[in-house]
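To the team - flavin-adenine dinucleotide complex, inputs and output below.
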Amino acid sequence: MTIDLIVNGEDLKIRAEPTERLAELLRRSRAAPSLTIDCGGGFCGKCLVLLDGKPVASCLVPAFRARGSEVVSYEGFMSTQEAAEVEAALASAGARLCPFCKPAYSLALGFIAENRARMGEAEALAVVSSVRCTCSDPSAVAEAARAILGDAREQRMGRAHR
Amino acid sequence: MRIDDVASPSSLQEALAYLKRRPDAVPWAGGTLIAADPSELGRGGSVAALDLHRIAELRHLFPSDRYLELGSCVSLNQLAALPERRVAAPLRAAAMAVGSYAIRNSATLGGNLSAKGRPMSTLPALSCVDAVVELKSPAGGRWVSVHSLVGQDGRVALPQAALVTRVRVGLQSWDSVEFRLCGGGPYPHPDAATFCACARASSGTVSELRIAYAGRALARSREAETELVGRRLPLSRRDIEAFGAALARRARELGQAEAAVDECERLAGAYLAKLSEV
Ligand SMILES: Cc1cc2nc3c(=O)[nH]c(=O)nc-3n(C[C@H](O)[C@H](O)[C@H](O)COP(=O)(O)OP(=O)(O)OC[C@H]3O[C@@H](n4cnc5c(N)ncnc54)[C@H](O)[C@@H]3O)c2cc1C
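Output:
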């Protein structure tokens, strides 16, 4: 079958097997070279991408489900406004991430940054805990998530005081 | 397993027309369980996949003052994000407990409820709150109690070519709710289990009690629950032990492993002992 989708703003038309997963399709198409397929069972979250704006474990998503959808991988995320902020939050939290989990964590934090106006701390921590990697201390990533949320709160309060 | 066709209808009518031609088609909602446990596809050599994702009717949420009606393809994150007063507490707890945030964006209520191999985490919650479920097949539609979907073996068995299309849950409030993932490993491990209990008390007596344990089968003893209604709180040790024994007997009848039988007896006992604090 042919799958038409948008990956990082570019149209992609690609043939896929009915049993193929989105993660495999993205790797094969070379549209998301940073994407890691590690556990392949939804546990590690390293294959996280944004599918129609929401973080999903792409190793569990059938390729056919992505027809007509929009996918953002780390490559696409790096050109967004939030990318620099996420990098800075990770650095100041002291999170040193390996190349296998950094793309997924960055996308998760970017999702928090984009949705912070309506997101509470519990939800933000749930978002980042979708990714698990032995390289990193999860508390440092959690701190980066709190910092991103905190900046938003300060901005909101600043606006309210003005 | 080979998938020989994928249908992605954009309306329920189209989906039902497809099921009429291919009654063997496997409904595919979030696909997170099918991916983790391919036995959900059945044992045949090849199947057709019926992708439900594009059917807008299945993603609707209809909140009212008395109940919440959910399309079967509402994701568990959408369900968890509803205001607390709009969702029965046991169901909300179940929705929030499944997998990770990223998994819950794909995972649907209908997919969780319809798992063929074994009951998953929302089933004990839906059983405790007496949910009703709309089934639709090419032959027509009807609302049925969630209990009627659970067969003698404690597993969900949907009629052939039937889709779960909506789930309706009352919004009664509970004085005490307990929900936990337990068992011999985290889902999708075959020994994973879910415990759910809720109760109401009035004037120091139990007025409503529901306790369910879903391991490889759903165990609930409604006779034992009814026995405790009207009893004064705190419950006596004898009553608690009798309840635990009845639930354990039910779990054993369903062929649960001894570790699961012990666990459901222990969790029910601990819950009932704590009830005196309500
Ligand atoms: C890492 C990990 C952790 C998990 N943790 C949990 C957990 O804690 N608790 C838990 O319960 N589950 C867990 N799961 C399993 C799974 O994610 C959930 O059960 C999920 O809710 C299934 O929903 P789905 O929409 O993805 O179902 P699908 O995979 O799409 O379908 C599941 C089954 O239901 C059938 N089906 C789907 N929709 C319908 C419908 N509308 N009508 C009729 N039949 C239908 C399918 O044919 C299939 O048999 C976990 C999975 C993973 C990978």
